């Protein structure tokens, strides 16, 4: 299969590059510098020229707070550009694998969100991502939308990297303890996408929305504790005190979902893919970071 990966220098894009090495696919990787999805004509010409069997869209506007002040920028990348990509995929009759987010939900549930639960984004970022999903579904292309959450890895900017940076500079940290979700190791997400590719190649699959995240839930405070417990074993600098605080003590421009646990039962049933073992992934990421820092 010929695969086009959009956003190859981002966190997921780099993990996809790791996981697609030595696979029986012809893969074209494009970063924002090589293909700016905000330029619809360039995107159209480039994708038509490559003529892939599958487009993996790993690019997005992910600055959740900044999106509240840059609504047009978020909408351009997460909605309008996605609609353009989906339209091109429809013309080529190729698959689109698109990564979305838990922020399409309001976070008021008390049980894991399933794919068909009511969406109700609470901020600009979530709203723009949901509009991107709707545009894909309306385009007529063959698609798989994968919603994920709390993504971390040895690459890019993420909660793991932030905790290690702050932990090296400060002896005491206060972390939000009343927001609950499932950390997701980006390498596991990339492996899942690669497994999906093999099944798309092998036979008929229907378009649909899927959830993929960590295997069990925790708070940001719990996640931070797990990070520092593991980091300490690997001789990273860690703070002496980690305090749990409420969301109200850490105000942000954009509202965060209080509960963003996603059910992974559908992707397990349809593709045989297990949820991310985020504790094992944390250990793997930290081991790799010892050599990247």
Question: What do you see in this structure?
Answer:
By secondary structure, the protein is of the alpha/beta class. It has one domain (2-220, 246-292): NAD(P)-binding Rossmann-like Domain (Rossmann fold, 3-Layer(aba) Sandwich), CATH 3.40.50.720. The chain has 9 helices and 12 strands. The strands form 4 sheets. The chain has a 6-stranded parallel β-sheet, with helices on both faces. Strand 4 (95-101), helix 4 and strand 5 (142-148) form a beta-alpha-beta unit. Helix 7 (220-233) packs across helix 9 (278-292). The longest helix is centred in the first third of the chain and has 22 residues, at 71-92. The model has no long low-confidence stretch (mean pLDDT 95).
Topology diagram in text:
Elements: E1 2-6, H1 11-19, E2 26-30, H2 40-50, E3 54-57, H3 71-92, E4 95-101, H4 124-139, E5 142-148, E6 151-152, H5 159-169, E7 172-176, E8 180-181, E9 184-185, H6 186-202, E10 208-211, E11 218-219, H7 220-233, E12 241-245, H8 265-271, H9 278-292
What's the structural domain tally?
Answer: 1
Give the topology string: H per helix, E per strand: EHEHEHEHEEHEEEHEEHEHH
Name the shape in a single word: globular
CATH architecture: 3-Layer(aba) Sandwich
* Spatial gap, N to C terminus: 35 Å
Per DSSP, the total helix count is 9
Low-confidence stretches: none
Look at the structure and name the CATH superfamily.
NAD(P)-binding Rossmann-like Domain
Q: In percent terms, what proportion of residues is strand?
A: 15-25%
Largest sheet: 6 strands, parallel
CATH topology: Rossmann fold
Arrangement of strands in the largest sheet: 2-1-3-4-5-10
């Amino acid at each position: 299969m010929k695969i086009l990966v959009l956003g190859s220098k981002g966190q997921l894009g780099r993990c996809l590059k790791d996981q697609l090495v030595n696979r029986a696919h012809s893969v074209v990787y494009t970063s924002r510098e090589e293909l700016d999805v905000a330029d619809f004509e360039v995107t159209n010409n480039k994708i038509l020229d490559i003529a892939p069997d599958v487009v993996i869209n790993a690019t997005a506007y992910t600055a959740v707070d900044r999106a509240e002040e840059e609504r047009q920028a978020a909408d351009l990348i997460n909605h309008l550009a996605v609609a353009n990509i989906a339209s091109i995929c429809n013309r080529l009759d190729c698959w689109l694998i698109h990564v979305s987010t838990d922020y399409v939900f309001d976070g008021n549930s008390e049980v894991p969100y399933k794919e068909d639960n009511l969406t109700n984004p609470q901020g600009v970022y979530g709203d723009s991502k949901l509009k991107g999903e709707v545009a894909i579904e309306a385009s007529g292309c063959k698609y798989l939308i994968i919603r994920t959450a709390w993504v971390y890895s040895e690459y890019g900017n993420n909660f793991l990297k932030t905790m290690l940076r702050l932990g090296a500079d400060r002896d005491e940290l206060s972390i939000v303890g009343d927001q609950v979700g499932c950390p997701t190791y980006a390498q596991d997400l990339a492996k899942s996408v690669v497994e999906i590719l093999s099944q798309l190649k092998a036979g008929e699959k229907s378009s649909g929305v899927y959830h993929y995240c960590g295997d069990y839930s925790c708070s940001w405070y719990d996640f931070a504790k797990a990070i520092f417990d593991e980091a300490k074993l690997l001789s990273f600098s860690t703070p002496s005190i980690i305090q749990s605080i409420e969301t109200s003590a850490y105000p942000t421009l954009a509202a965060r979902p209080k509960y963003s646990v996603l059910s992974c039962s559908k992707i397990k049933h349809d593709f045989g893919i297990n949820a991310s073992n985020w504790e094992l992934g944390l250990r793997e990421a930290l081991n790799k970071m010892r050599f990247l820092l």
